[in-house]
Amino acid sequence: MKPIQQSFSVPFQYQVFFTEKLFHPSNTILVDLIKSKQPPKVYFVIDSGVADAHPELITQIRQYAQHYAHQFTLCAEPLLVPGGEQAKNDTDYLQQIVEATHLYGIDRHSYIIAVGGGAVLDMVGFASAVSHRGIRHIRIPTTVLSQNDSGVGVKNSINYFGKKNYLGTFAPPFAVINDFDFLSTLDERDWRGGISEAIKVALIKDAAFFAQMEEQAEALADREPEPMQSLIYRCAEMHLEHIGGGDPFEMGSSRPLDFGHWAAHKLEQLTNYSIRHGEAVAIGIALDVTYSYLKGMITESALHRVIHLMKTLGFTLYVPELKQEEILKGLGEFREHLGGELTIMLLEEIGKGVEIHEMDSALIREAISQLEVFEKMDLEV
Ligand code: NAD
User: Mean pLDDT in the chain?
Assistant: First the structure.
């Protein structure tokens, strides 16, 4: 008997909103998204770091739900989970959400809404994707990094076997709502950290965006809201274009949006997550840009522009863990996570990435030593 050929495609679409005062009753973005004849159940999971910084948040959510009681119902009190990697490292939180779906009868026409940083969104996204094989999931990202990158994409995960993002799925969200008001309470490290993902996309795809960041570097470092909002918008837009235009579920071996990430993921692990994702990505980018220079792929002036921008923004470019032999294992683990041939993005010029399939260990070590020098020196461009 000949094999039966099966083939279908499933169209995915979702909107990414940009707003302020999301839970003010006059803001109808959320209710417009979820209202239906049969008021759906809604379950909130909130990053406790966000709840601490915004003590009025839970009351506002309750009042919003009361105001729109005929449109949707909160099926339980919001669940608070710790922010940061703890949410992804400890499976108890995943378990609590799965249990809630069982206890409160949260079905595939209900909504699980996550409010928080990238780590909490990753974990809640995973819980939503595996419960009943996929419950509608709305993300409300609250950090720069999650608003411009992690929260707008299609991936979710938890860490497992001590490895980043080992368990996870590709599951597009029902919608994403970025409320800029959350950003005002971020600490310095998280305000700055997310900018690394914007530098990343600009370097591999958009020289003009990179130049815009250079122009606005001081305003960004001074935490001016407007340059940050336009950075987030452009960065989110580029991530969405990339995901929609190519290989959303990463079937191939290429992951251009993971420029700088092979070392970053390993550094997060080697520093026991004391370095945050965005900070590690900045170091990973600086490393791969320096490597690109040492390999003769970009000019010294391009290298200096990147390093100068990062230093103006206040990024640390070198940590001692870079000198551990283990760091090189990051390459193998990066390949293993995706499968197939090792594919690493390097730079050909600012705004243009190029993929390569092997890296020279001696040159990586040289690039690391160079980062140590950059960290100490003042660099004029
Ligand atoms: P984070 O989630 O680790 O949060 C950092 C800290 O900020 C936490 O303590 C949190 O409680 C706190 N916080 C969050 N919002 C706040 C606010 N508005 N005010 C005050 N404190 C607040 O940091 P992140 O940079 O958003 O996310 C990093 C995570 O995202 C990593 O786990 C990384 O692997 C993941 N990520 C996922 C993808 C993806 O495609 N799914 C892409 C990139 C990164």
Answer: 95
pLDDT digits (tens, 9 = 90+) for 292-311: 999 999 999 999 999 999 99
> Token pair for residue 341?
């041939």
Q: Where are the domains of the chain?
A: 15-185, 188-376
**What is the CA(297)–ligand 1 centre distance, in A?**
33
pLDDT given for residue 358 in this prediction = 93
CATH of 15-185, one of 3.60.20.10, 3.90.1700.10, 3.20.20.70, 3.40.50.1970: 3.40.50.1970
Rounded to an integer, the average pLDDT of 55-59 is 98
**Closest to 376 in 3D by CA, of 282, 276, 323, 307:** 307
User: Is residue 16 over pLDDT 80?
Assistant: yes
The pLDDT tens digits for 97-122 are 999 999 999 999 999 999 999 999 99
Nearest to 12 by CA among 239, 248, 177: 248
Q: Is the fold of 15-185 the same as that of 188-376?
A: no
Neighbours of 252 (CB within 10 A): 13
Checking if the pLDDT of 379 tops 80, the result is: no
Cα 47 to averaged position of ligand 1 atoms, centre (Å): 9
Whether residue 255 has pLDDT greater than 90: no
> What separation in angstroms does the CA of 6 have from each of 2, 9, 11, 86, 247?
12, 11, 17, 41, 20
> Residue whose CA is closest, atom 14 of ligand 1?
117
Quick one: which atom of ligand 1 is closest to the CA of 120? Answer: 2
Any residues with Cβ below 6 Å from ligand 1, and which? 47, 49-50, 53, 83-85, 88, 116-120, 122, 142-143, 145-146, 149-150, 153, 155-156, 164, 182, 185-186, 190, 193-194, 276-278
pTM of the model: 0.95
Residue 159 clears pLDDT 70, i.e. is over it: yes
Report the topology of domain 188-376: Dehydroquinate synthase-like, alpha domain (1.20.1090)
DSSP-derived letter for residue 97 is H
